[in-house]
Protein backbone atom coordinates (compact mmCIF):
# COMPACT_ATOMS: atom_id res chain seq x y z
CA UNK A 1 0.00 0.00 0.00
CA UNK A 2 1.41 3.37 -1.01
CA UNK A 3 0.67 6.12 1.48
CA UNK A 4 1.47 9.77 0.83
CA UNK A 5 2.31 11.49 4.10
CA UNK A 6 2.03 15.25 4.29
CA UNK A 7 3.18 17.63 7.07
CA UNK A 8 1.06 20.72 7.81
CA UNK A 9 -1.61 21.35 5.21
CA UNK A 10 -2.57 24.96 6.05
CA UNK A 11 -5.56 24.68 3.71
CA UNK A 12 -3.54 23.79 0.58
CA UNK A 13 -5.56 20.77 -0.55
CA UNK A 14 -5.47 21.72 -4.24
CA UNK A 15 -1.66 21.89 -4.19
CA UNK A 16 -1.19 18.61 -2.33
CA UNK A 17 -3.54 16.71 -4.65
CA UNK A 18 -1.79 18.25 -7.69
CA UNK A 19 1.57 17.11 -6.27
CA UNK A 20 0.21 13.59 -5.72
CA UNK A 21 -1.10 13.49 -9.29
CA UNK A 22 2.30 14.64 -10.57
CA UNK A 23 4.13 11.94 -8.56
CA UNK A 24 1.75 9.25 -9.83
CA UNK A 25 2.44 10.32 -13.43
CA UNK A 26 6.22 10.66 -13.12
CA UNK A 27 6.79 7.48 -11.11
CA UNK A 28 3.96 5.47 -12.67
CA UNK A 29 2.47 4.50 -9.31
CA UNK A 30 -0.91 4.69 -7.66
CA UNK A 31 -1.18 6.32 -4.26
CA UNK A 32 -3.78 4.61 -2.07
CA UNK A 33 -4.08 7.05 0.83
CA UNK A 34 -3.09 10.57 1.89
CA UNK A 35 -2.34 11.23 5.56
CA UNK A 36 -2.18 14.89 6.69
CA UNK A 37 -0.58 15.57 10.06
CA UNK A 38 -2.62 18.61 11.08
CA UNK A 39 -3.06 22.37 10.56
CA UNK A 40 -5.60 21.17 8.03
CA UNK A 41 -7.90 24.25 8.18
CA UNK A 42 -11.22 22.69 7.19
CA UNK A 43 -13.05 26.04 6.83
CA UNK A 44 -16.44 25.48 5.21
CA UNK A 45 -17.34 29.17 4.96
CA UNK A 46 -16.33 32.58 6.38
CA UNK A 47 -17.96 31.82 9.75
CA UNK A 48 -15.55 28.94 10.32
CA UNK A 49 -12.59 31.32 9.90
CA UNK A 50 -13.63 32.93 13.19
CA UNK A 51 -12.78 29.68 14.98
CA UNK A 52 -9.34 29.50 13.34
CA UNK A 53 -6.47 30.60 15.55
CA UNK A 54 -3.98 32.42 13.33
CA UNK A 55 -2.88 35.98 12.53
CA UNK A 56 -5.67 37.78 10.61
CA UNK A 57 -3.54 38.05 7.45
CA UNK A 58 -3.59 34.24 7.13
CA UNK A 59 -7.35 33.97 7.65
CA UNK A 60 -8.36 33.19 4.09
CA UNK A 61 -10.71 30.59 2.62
CA UNK A 62 -8.00 28.72 0.72
CA UNK A 63 -9.20 25.49 -0.96
CA UNK A 64 -10.99 23.20 1.51
CA UNK A 65 -14.45 24.72 0.87
CA UNK A 66 -14.36 23.46 -2.74
CA UNK A 67 -14.19 19.87 -1.43
CA UNK A 68 -16.87 20.61 1.16
CA UNK A 69 -19.23 22.11 -1.43
CA UNK A 70 -18.72 19.28 -3.91
CA UNK A 71 -17.10 21.53 -6.51
CA UNK A 72 -13.93 19.40 -6.21
CA UNK A 73 -13.62 15.76 -5.15
CA UNK A 74 -10.65 14.41 -3.20
CA UNK A 75 -8.92 12.09 -5.70
CA UNK A 76 -7.35 9.95 -2.93
CA UNK A 77 -8.91 8.84 0.38
CA UNK A 78 -7.57 11.38 2.88
CA UNK A 79 -7.17 11.06 6.65
CA UNK A 80 -6.12 13.87 8.96
CA UNK A 81 -5.75 14.98 12.55
CA UNK A 82 -6.11 18.49 13.96
CA UNK A 83 -3.18 20.77 14.75
CA UNK A 84 -3.13 24.27 16.24
CA UNK A 85 -4.56 26.11 13.22
CA UNK A 86 -7.99 24.61 12.67
CA UNK A 87 -11.64 25.46 12.12
CA UNK A 88 -12.03 24.23 15.70
CA UNK A 89 -15.83 24.63 15.74
CA UNK A 90 -16.14 22.16 12.86
CA UNK A 91 -13.69 19.65 14.38
CA UNK A 92 -15.55 19.84 17.71
CA UNK A 93 -18.81 18.83 15.94
CA UNK A 94 -16.90 15.76 14.79
CA UNK A 95 -15.15 15.13 18.10
CA UNK A 96 -15.46 11.34 17.63
CA UNK A 97 -14.21 11.56 14.02
CA UNK A 98 -16.08 11.70 10.74
CA UNK A 99 -16.12 12.94 7.13
CA UNK A 100 -15.40 16.66 6.82
CA UNK A 101 -15.99 16.34 3.07
CA UNK A 102 -16.56 13.36 0.76
CA UNK A 103 -13.45 11.10 0.90
CA UNK A 104 -11.77 13.28 3.60
CA UNK A 105 -11.91 11.81 7.10
CA UNK A 106 -11.06 13.49 10.42
CA UNK A 107 -9.71 11.01 13.00
CA UNK A 108 -11.30 12.87 15.91
CA UNK A 109 -9.70 14.53 18.95
CA UNK A 110 -8.23 11.08 19.41
CA UNK A 111 -9.16 8.10 17.31
CA UNK A 112 -8.34 4.88 15.51
CA UNK A 113 -9.72 3.70 12.17
CA UNK A 114 -8.92 0.90 9.77
CA UNK A 115 -7.87 1.40 6.19
CA UNK A 116 -7.90 -1.99 4.46
CA UNK A 117 -6.06 -4.14 7.01
CA UNK A 118 -3.95 -1.25 8.28
CA UNK A 119 -4.82 0.28 11.64
CA UNK A 120 -4.24 4.03 11.94
CA UNK A 121 -4.46 6.02 15.17
CA UNK A 122 -4.10 9.73 15.82
CA UNK A 123 -4.09 12.45 18.45
CA UNK A 124 -5.22 15.95 17.48
CA UNK A 125 -3.92 19.24 18.86
CA UNK A 126 -0.68 20.21 20.54
CA UNK A 127 0.54 19.63 24.08
CA UNK A 128 0.34 22.39 26.67
CA UNK A 129 0.77 21.33 30.25
CA UNK A 130 -1.53 24.11 31.47
CA UNK A 131 -4.69 22.67 29.92
CA UNK A 132 -3.70 19.01 29.77
CA UNK A 133 -5.60 17.87 32.87
CA UNK A 134 -8.75 19.94 32.26
CA UNK A 135 -11.94 18.91 30.54
CA UNK A 136 -13.09 20.10 27.11
CA UNK A 137 -14.68 23.33 28.37
CA UNK A 138 -14.50 25.37 25.16
CA UNK A 139 -17.70 25.87 23.15
CA UNK A 140 -18.15 27.83 19.94
CA UNK A 141 -18.29 30.73 19.30
CA UNK A 142 -14.91 30.91 21.06
CA UNK A 143 -13.53 33.88 22.96
CA UNK A 144 -9.88 34.88 22.39
CA UNK A 145 -8.61 32.58 25.12
CA UNK A 146 -10.70 29.52 24.28
CA UNK A 147 -9.76 29.91 20.63
CA UNK A 148 -6.21 29.00 21.65
CA UNK A 149 -6.86 26.42 24.34
CA UNK A 150 -9.41 24.41 22.34
CA UNK A 151 -6.60 22.70 20.41
CA UNK A 152 -4.55 21.82 23.49
CA UNK A 153 -4.42 18.06 24.05
CA UNK A 154 -6.44 16.70 26.99
CA UNK A 155 -5.41 13.80 29.19
CA UNK A 156 -8.81 12.16 28.72
CA UNK A 157 -8.23 11.65 24.97
CA UNK A 158 -4.73 10.31 25.63
CA UNK A 159 -6.00 7.95 28.33
CA UNK A 160 -8.43 6.41 25.84
CA UNK A 161 -5.53 5.73 23.47
CA UNK A 162 -3.56 4.16 26.33
CA UNK A 163 -6.31 1.55 26.65
CA UNK A 164 -5.56 0.16 23.19
CA UNK A 165 -4.17 -3.36 23.35
CA UNK A 166 -4.26 -4.51 19.71
CA UNK A 167 -1.33 -3.46 17.50
CA UNK A 168 -1.49 -0.10 15.74
CA UNK A 169 0.42 0.18 12.45
CA UNK A 170 0.54 3.93 12.00
CA UNK A 171 0.15 6.76 14.49
CA UNK A 172 -0.12 10.49 13.79
CA UNK A 173 0.45 13.44 16.12
CA UNK A 174 0.75 17.10 15.15
CA UNK A 175 3.64 18.03 17.47
CA UNK A 176 6.56 15.64 17.82
CA UNK A 177 6.96 13.20 20.70
CA UNK A 178 9.31 14.90 23.17
CA UNK A 179 12.84 13.46 22.94
CA UNK A 180 12.34 11.94 19.47
CA UNK A 181 15.26 14.05 18.19
CA UNK A 182 17.61 11.81 20.22
CA UNK A 183 16.88 8.99 17.77
CA UNK A 184 17.84 10.88 14.58
CA UNK A 185 20.40 13.36 13.31
CA UNK A 186 19.91 16.00 15.98
CA UNK A 187 23.02 17.99 14.93
CA UNK A 188 21.61 18.44 11.48
CA UNK A 189 18.25 19.44 12.93
CA UNK A 190 19.85 22.14 15.11
CA UNK A 191 21.91 23.38 12.16
CA UNK A 192 18.67 23.89 10.18
CA UNK A 193 16.62 25.21 13.10
CA UNK A 194 19.08 26.75 15.61
CA UNK A 195 16.25 28.20 17.69
CA UNK A 196 15.23 24.63 18.69
CA UNK A 197 18.60 24.09 20.41
CA UNK A 198 17.71 25.25 23.90
CA UNK A 199 14.39 23.39 23.96
CA UNK A 200 16.09 20.23 22.69
CA UNK A 201 18.76 20.44 25.39
CA UNK A 202 16.14 21.01 28.08
CA UNK A 203 14.05 18.21 26.56
CA UNK A 204 11.00 20.46 26.38
CA UNK A 205 10.54 20.49 22.60
CA UNK A 206 7.51 18.39 21.76
CA UNK A 207 4.67 16.52 23.35
CA UNK A 208 4.99 14.51 26.58
CA UNK A 209 1.79 12.44 26.03
CA UNK A 210 2.91 11.64 22.46
CA UNK A 211 6.08 10.05 23.88
CA UNK A 212 4.03 8.06 26.39
CA UNK A 213 1.83 6.82 23.57
CA UNK A 214 4.85 6.01 21.38
CA UNK A 215 6.18 3.79 24.17
CA UNK A 216 2.81 2.18 24.80
CA UNK A 217 1.54 1.63 21.25
CA UNK A 218 4.93 0.98 19.56
CA UNK A 219 3.47 1.51 16.07
CA UNK A 220 5.49 0.64 12.97
CA UNK A 221 5.28 4.26 11.80
CA UNK A 222 4.78 7.59 13.54
CA UNK A 223 4.17 10.74 11.50
CA UNK A 224 4.21 14.36 12.74
CA UNK A 225 4.36 17.95 11.49
CA UNK A 226 4.16 21.32 13.30
CA UNK A 227 7.87 22.26 13.45
CA UNK A 228 7.93 22.89 9.70
CA UNK A 229 10.96 20.81 8.83
CA UNK A 230 11.73 17.27 7.73
CA UNK A 231 13.20 14.93 10.32
CA UNK A 232 13.51 11.14 10.44
CA UNK A 233 14.32 8.89 13.38
CA UNK A 234 14.24 5.21 14.28
CA UNK A 235 13.21 4.17 17.78
CA UNK A 236 13.97 0.67 19.01
CA UNK A 237 11.67 -0.21 21.92
CA UNK A 238 13.49 -1.71 24.90
CA UNK A 239 10.74 -4.09 26.00
CA UNK A 240 10.42 -6.18 22.83
CA UNK A 241 13.01 -4.79 20.41
CA UNK A 242 10.31 -3.66 17.99
CA UNK A 243 10.95 -0.59 15.86
CA UNK A 244 9.04 2.63 15.16
CA UNK A 245 10.06 4.67 12.12
CA UNK A 246 9.40 8.34 12.83
CA UNK A 247 8.99 10.90 10.08
CA UNK A 248 8.15 14.58 10.42
CA UNK A 249 7.48 16.66 7.34
CA UNK A 250 7.35 20.34 6.43
CA UNK A 251 4.33 22.35 5.40
CA UNK A 252 3.05 22.55 1.84
CA UNK A 253 5.25 25.14 0.09
CA UNK A 254 7.28 24.99 -3.14
CA UNK A 255 10.76 23.61 -2.55
CA UNK A 256 9.96 22.26 0.92
CA UNK A 257 9.92 18.61 2.03
CA UNK A 258 6.20 18.40 2.68
CA UNK A 259 5.26 15.10 1.05
CA UNK A 260 6.73 11.62 1.16
CA UNK A 261 5.52 8.27 -0.17
CA UNK A 262 5.72 5.41 2.31
CA UNK A 263 5.30 1.81 1.21
CA UNK A 264 3.46 -0.14 3.89
CA UNK A 265 3.12 -3.92 3.76
CA UNK A 266 -0.54 -4.79 3.49
CA UNK A 267 -2.95 -7.29 2.04
CA UNK A 268 -4.52 -6.18 -1.23
CA UNK A 269 -7.64 -3.98 -0.98
CA UNK A 270 -10.38 -3.02 -0.89
CA UNK A 271 -8.80 0.04 0.66
CA UNK A 272 -11.63 1.76 2.45
CA UNK A 273 -11.93 3.67 5.71
CA UNK A 274 -13.73 1.59 8.33
CA UNK A 275 -14.65 1.85 11.99
CA UNK A 276 -12.30 0.12 14.41
CA UNK A 277 -13.97 -2.33 16.78
CA UNK A 278 -11.61 -1.89 19.74
CA UNK A 279 -11.73 1.90 19.45
CA UNK A 280 -15.54 2.03 19.41
CA UNK A 281 -15.56 -0.20 22.50
CA UNK A 282 -13.16 2.23 24.24
CA UNK A 283 -15.31 5.19 23.13
CA UNK A 284 -18.40 3.47 24.57
CA UNK A 285 -16.71 2.64 27.86
CA UNK A 286 -15.16 6.07 28.53
CA UNK A 287 -18.08 8.24 27.49
CA UNK A 288 -19.51 8.04 31.01
CA UNK A 289 -16.51 10.03 32.31
CA UNK A 290 -16.18 12.48 29.36
CA UNK A 291 -14.93 15.67 31.10
CA UNK A 292 -16.69 18.75 29.74
CA UNK A 293 -15.83 21.45 32.25
CA UNK A 294 -12.79 23.52 33.18
CA UNK A 295 -12.23 21.38 36.27
CA UNK A 296 -9.20 19.14 36.55
CA UNK A 297 -10.12 15.68 35.34
CA UNK A 298 -9.62 12.80 37.76
CA UNK A 299 -10.62 9.36 36.64
CA UNK A 300 -12.64 7.84 39.45
CA UNK A 301 -12.75 4.16 38.55
CA UNK A 302 -16.17 3.72 40.16
CA UNK A 303 -17.61 6.18 37.61
CA UNK A 304 -16.22 4.23 34.69
CA UNK A 305 -18.49 1.86 32.86
CA UNK A 306 -17.51 -1.59 34.12
CA UNK A 307 -18.55 -3.46 31.03
CA UNK A 308 -16.12 -4.39 28.28
CA UNK A 309 -18.02 -3.48 25.10
CA UNK A 310 -15.84 -5.34 22.61
CA UNK A 311 -18.31 -8.17 21.92
CA UNK A 312 -21.24 -5.75 22.00
CA UNK A 313 -19.58 -3.50 19.36
CA UNK A 314 -18.58 -6.49 17.28
CA UNK A 315 -22.16 -7.75 17.12
CA UNK A 316 -23.48 -4.30 16.24
CA UNK A 317 -20.89 -3.84 13.49
CA UNK A 318 -21.72 -7.29 12.11
CA UNK A 319 -25.30 -6.17 11.67
CA UNK A 320 -24.68 -2.62 10.40
CA UNK A 321 -21.34 -2.93 8.60
CA UNK A 322 -18.11 -1.10 9.42
CA UNK A 323 -18.26 1.87 7.04
CA UNK A 324 -18.51 5.24 8.81
CA UNK A 325 -21.83 7.13 8.64
CA UNK A 326 -22.18 9.18 5.46
CA UNK A 327 -20.91 12.72 5.02
CA UNK A 328 -23.60 15.38 5.53
CA UNK A 329 -23.22 19.01 4.46
CA UNK A 330 -24.70 20.87 7.44
CA UNK A 331 -23.82 24.54 6.81
CA UNK A 332 -23.89 26.55 3.57
CA UNK A 333 -20.51 26.26 1.83
CA UNK A 334 -18.47 29.36 0.96
CA UNK A 335 -19.71 31.03 -2.20
CA UNK A 336 -17.10 33.36 -3.72
CA UNK A 337 -19.86 35.32 -5.50
CA UNK A 338 -21.64 36.37 -2.32
CA UNK A 339 -20.69 36.88 1.28
CA UNK A 340 -22.51 34.93 3.94
CA UNK A 341 -25.03 36.62 6.21
CA UNK A 342 -23.24 37.10 9.52
CA UNK A 343 -26.40 36.18 11.40
CA UNK A 344 -25.77 32.49 10.86
CA UNK A 345 -23.02 32.73 13.49
CA UNK A 346 -20.66 29.83 14.13
CA UNK A 347 -22.40 28.74 17.32
CA UNK A 348 -22.82 25.15 18.46
CA UNK A 349 -24.32 22.85 15.90
CA UNK A 350 -25.02 19.13 16.04
CA UNK A 351 -23.42 17.24 13.21
CA UNK A 352 -25.72 14.44 11.92
CA UNK A 353 -22.74 12.07 11.59
CA UNK A 354 -21.95 12.47 15.29
CA UNK A 355 -25.59 12.01 16.21
CA UNK A 356 -25.78 8.80 14.14
CA UNK A 357 -22.60 7.39 15.66
CA UNK A 358 -23.79 8.15 19.19
CA UNK A 359 -27.17 6.56 18.49
CA UNK A 360 -25.36 3.51 17.14
CA UNK A 361 -23.25 3.31 20.32
CA UNK A 362 -26.33 4.10 22.44
CA UNK A 363 -24.63 7.12 23.98
CA UNK A 364 -26.01 10.56 24.89
CA UNK A 365 -25.00 13.67 22.92
CA UNK A 366 -22.78 15.74 25.23
CA UNK A 367 -20.86 18.10 22.95
CA UNK A 368 -23.18 21.07 23.53
CA UNK A 369 -23.27 20.61 27.31
CA UNK A 370 -23.00 24.07 28.86
CA UNK A 371 -19.92 24.68 31.00
CA UNK A 372 -19.41 27.10 33.90
CA UNK A 373 -17.60 29.54 31.61
CA UNK A 374 -20.35 29.73 29.00
CA UNK A 375 -23.02 29.93 31.72
CA UNK A 376 -21.09 32.82 33.21
CA UNK A 377 -21.21 34.68 29.91
CA UNK A 378 -24.82 33.83 29.16
CA UNK A 379 -25.99 34.77 32.65
CA UNK A 380 -23.69 37.71 33.21
CA UNK A 381 -26.53 39.70 34.77
CA UNK A 382 -26.78 37.19 37.60
CA UNK A 383 -24.64 37.64 40.68
CA UNK A 384 -21.95 34.98 40.81
CA UNK A 385 -19.73 34.47 43.80
CA UNK A 386 -16.56 36.53 43.56
CA UNK A 387 -14.55 33.36 43.97
CA UNK A 388 -15.81 31.82 40.76
CA UNK A 389 -15.28 35.02 38.76
CA UNK A 390 -11.76 35.56 40.07
CA UNK A 391 -10.81 32.00 39.47
CA UNK A 392 -12.05 32.08 35.89
CA UNK A 393 -10.38 35.35 35.01
CA UNK A 394 -7.11 34.13 36.53
CA UNK A 395 -7.28 31.01 34.45
CA UNK A 396 -7.85 33.06 31.34
CA UNK A 397 -5.00 35.46 32.11
CA UNK A 398 -2.40 32.83 32.82
CA UNK A 399 -3.52 30.73 29.89
CA UNK A 400 -2.93 33.70 27.64
CA UNK A 401 0.44 34.47 29.18
CA UNK A 402 1.40 30.87 28.73
CA UNK A 403 0.39 30.81 25.08
CA UNK A 404 2.85 33.55 24.21
CA UNK A 405 5.79 31.49 25.47
CA UNK A 406 4.57 28.22 24.06
CA UNK A 407 7.32 27.22 21.70
CA UNK A 408 5.41 25.30 19.07
CA UNK A 409 2.86 27.97 18.39
CA UNK A 410 5.36 30.76 18.86
CA UNK A 411 7.77 29.16 16.42
CA UNK A 412 5.05 28.82 13.81
CA UNK A 413 3.78 32.34 14.19
CA UNK A 414 7.29 33.68 13.73
CA UNK A 415 7.64 31.68 10.57
CA UNK A 416 7.20 34.29 7.82
CA UNK A 417 5.13 32.01 5.60
CA UNK A 418 3.16 30.14 8.32
ZN1 LIG B 1 1.15 23.52 13.94
ZN1 LIG C 1 1.85 24.19 10.69
From TrEMBL:
A molecular function annotated in GO for this UniProt entry is: RNA lariat debranching enzyme activity
Location (main, coarse): nucleus
Q: Decide whether keyword Nucleus is in the record.
A: yes
A single BP term in Gene Ontology? mRNA splicing, via spliceosome
Q: Provide the cofactor list for this protein.
A: Zn(2+); Fe(2+); Mn(2+)
Q: Which residues form the Lariat debranching enzyme C-terminal domain?
A: 235-367
Q: Name one GO cellular component term.
A: nucleus
List the subcellular locations.
Nucleus
* Keyword vocabulary terms for this entry: Hydrolase, Iron, Manganese, Metal-binding, mRNA processing, Nucleus, Zinc
SMART domains, sorted: DBR1
**What does UniProt give as the signal peptide span?**
none
Q: Which Gene3D superfamilies match?
A: 3.60.21.10
Under the heading InterPro entries, the entry gives: Calcineurin-like_PHP, DBR1_C, Dbr1_N, Metallo-depent_PP-like
Q: Which domain of life is it from?
A: Eukaryota
Family under the similarity heading: Belongs to the lariat debranching enzyme family.
Q: What is this protein called?
A: Lariat debranching enzyme isoform X1
Which organism does this sequence originate in? Canna indica
Q: What is the lineage of its organism?
A: Eukaryota, Viridiplantae, Streptophyta, Embryophyta, Tracheophyta
Amino acid sequence: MKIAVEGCLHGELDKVYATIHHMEMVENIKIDLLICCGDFQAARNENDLESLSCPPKYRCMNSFWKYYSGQSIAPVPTIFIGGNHEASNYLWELYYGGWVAPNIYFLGFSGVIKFGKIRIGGLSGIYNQRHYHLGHFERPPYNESDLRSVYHIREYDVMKLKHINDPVDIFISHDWPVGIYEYGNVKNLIRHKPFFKEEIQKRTLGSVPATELLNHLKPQYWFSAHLHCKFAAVVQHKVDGSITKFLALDKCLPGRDFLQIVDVNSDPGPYEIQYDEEWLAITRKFNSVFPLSRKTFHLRPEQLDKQDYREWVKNKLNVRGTQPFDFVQNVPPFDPSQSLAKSSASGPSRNPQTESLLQFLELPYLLDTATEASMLIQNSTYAYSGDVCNKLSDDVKSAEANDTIELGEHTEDEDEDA
